[in-house]
Specification:
Layout lengths: L1 H5 L3 E4 L8 E4 L4 H5 L5 E13 L10 E4 H5 L2 E10 L9 E10 L5 E8 L7 E4 L19 E9 L6 E9 L11 E2 L6 E6 L5 E10 L5 E13 L1
Antiparallel strand pairs: 1-2, 3-14, 4-13, 5-6, 5-8, 6-7, 9-10, 9-12, 10-11, 13-14
């Protein structure tokens, strides 16, 4: 993954929201180019991506974790999914929690999107568990990646979400890495909810579920990053 990103000769840096991107060599760190580490912020405009099954009746309202709206300059970095009980038939996610991380990793905030009858222990998918990338050391999350897209692993009938994945995106490289991290259950097909432009990262996730807790609809929001 690192090798594939290092072959890029330039990276895009945004000086402000809506400004034209500035090209800079990847091999140079932000501190070498600009002096002190920059202050990062999120642009106000966002882009929504969504998926929904054909099942439309008896669904919950949208259950949302919106990191900037709820906490400030935070982005989505982790989800914890807990399966339905062993004897409940086809395994599916029955409880979903999310974690938002502040720029500079100064703090984290977690929240439960929804909770139905589930097993005791869930599995956590955390973008901060991915490999660090030294060329991004002065990025919003230091040299850790951010979520560049959310991947949905669907059941054989594409009726509900069985599995969730992230692709990481690193500051100054502004391209989703080639590989994804996945949460557990087997899946039959994949839908990727990506961002519209290279400098955008995922900041929120929302789901609708049926009475059993099966996720029948997902939407994500991406926002652009700017430094000052």
């Amino acid at each position: 993954m690192r090798t594939s990103m290092l072959i890029l000769s330039t990276a895009l840096l945004l000086t402000a929201c809506g400004a034209a991107p500035v090209a800079a060599p990847v091999e140079n760190t932000q501190s070498a180019l600009w002096g002190p580490a920059p202050s990062w912020s999120l642009c106000l405009s966002d882009v929504e991506r969504s998926w929904a099954t054909d099942v439309k009746s008896d669904l919950s309202d949208w259950k949302t974790l919106d990191c900037p709206a709820q906490f400030g300059d935070f982005v989505l970095t982790a989800i914890t999914a807990t399966n339905s009980p062993l004897l409940s038939g086809s395994p599916h996610i029955a409880k979903l929690e999310g974690t938002c991380s502040e720029f500079g990793l100064a703090s984290q905030e977690s929240a439960t999107l929804y909770s139905k009858t589930s097993r005791t222990v869930g599995r956590t998918l955390d973008i901060l568990d991915r490999s660090r990338f030294s060329a991004s050391e002065n990025g919003p999350l230091l040299d850790y990646g951010m979520v560049g897209s959310v991947i949905l692993g669907l059941d054989a009938q594409a009726g509900f979400v069985k599995n969730l994945g992230f692709t990481p995106k690193y500051a100054y490289v502004w391209r989703d890495a080639d590989s994804a991290s996945w949460y557990g259950n087997p899946y039959a097909s994949v839908v990727t909810l990506g961002c519209a432009t290279d400098n955008m990262v995922v900041t929120s996730i929302a789901v609708r579920h049926d009475s059993d807790g099966k996720i029948r609809a997902v939407r994500t929001h991406c926002r652009a990053l700017a430094y000052h």
